[in-house]
Amino acid sequence: MSYKTIIVHMDAGKRRRQRLDLAFTLAEKYDAHLIGLFGVEPLQVPAAPEAAPMLIEHMEKLRRQASEAAAQEFRDKMRKEQYSGKSEWRATLSDGLAALQFHAKYADLVVAGQPDPDGDGVPGWFAHELVMSIGRPVLYVPFAGRFDDCGKRVLIPWNASREAARAVKDGVPFLQKAAAAEVVTFDPEKVFHDDAALPDPDIGAYLARHDAKVTVTAQPTAGIDVGSAILSRAADNEADLIVMGAYSHSRIRELVLGGATRALFKSMTVPTLMSH
C-alpha cells in the first residue's frame, strides 16, 4: 500500500504555500502523482438585491485572481522541482468542497489546512466537513509553523473505534517509513472491558505485520480532556505526525461536550492525518 495520487488543497489563504511544500515532499517520497486543486467556499449572495450583481462580480474577480496566483505558485514549484510530468492543476470558482469531494474519489490522500481562527483561507466548517464527506484520509497542516516533512515519529491515539481503525489503515504508508510509532490508549478502562487486553495487543500485531516499528501503551488522562492529552503526549514524544480517527462520537455530542477531534482542529501543533 502506498500513496500514488495526492491532492493538495489550495485556497486564497497565505498558508497554501506551506501545504504545497509538504505535499510535494510527500509526493516525491511516495513517487506519487500530485494534483493541486484550488477551491473556496460557495459565494454568499448579498441580502440587498440592488447591490448583488456588482458585489458578485467583484467577488468573482477576486476569486479568479486568487486562483491564477495559486496556479502560478503550483506550476512554478513543479517546474523548479522538475515534477511537472507527474503533476497537474485543477480549479473551481464555485464550490471548492464539492470539487474536493469529487476529485478525492480518485486519490489516496488529501492535504488540507487546519481551520485558521483569523479567517485566512476557507472557513472552519470547510475543514470539518471535508474529512466527514470524502471517504479518504486528510492530512491537515497546522496554520502556525513550518513543516517540510512529517512521519518520522508518529503518535496514534487508539480507542478501537471504526474511525480509528480506518485512520490506522490509511496511515500505513507513513507508519512503514516511520522511525518510531506509538499507539496510545487514553483511559483504557473506558475503552476495553477486559483488563487482559490492556494495552491492546492486536493493534500492535497488526501494524508489526505491516513492518511498522510500533509500541503500544496506555495512559490515564488525569482529569484533562483527551484532546489535550494527545497534544501533550505528542510533544513529550517529539512526534511530527498524529494519526487518528475523526469524530468517533457523533458531531452533536462533540459540539456539546467537546471532543478530541474538535480539540485537534482548534490547537493542532503537528500535521494530523484524520479519517472518518
CATH superfamily of the largest domain: HUPs
Biggest beta sheet attributes: 10 strands, mixed
CATH topology of the largest domain: Rossmann fold
User: pLDDT average, as an integer?
Assistant: 91
Rg estimate, integer Å: 20 Å
The order of strands across the largest sheet is: 3-2-1-4-5-10-9-6-7-8
Main structural class: alpha/beta
Using the 3D structure, state the CATH architecture of the largest domain. 3-Layer(aba) Sandwich
- Show unreliable segments: 252-258
How many structural domains in the coordinates?
A: 2
Query: What is the tally of beta strands?
Result: 10
What would you call the shape?
Answer: globular
Helix content: 40-55%
N-to-C order of helices and strands: EHEHEHEHEEHHEHEHEHHE
Cα distance, first to last residue?
19 Å
Which tags fit this structure?
276 residues, alpha/beta, Rossmann fold, 2 domains, ten-stranded mixed beta sheet, 10 strands, 19% strand, globular
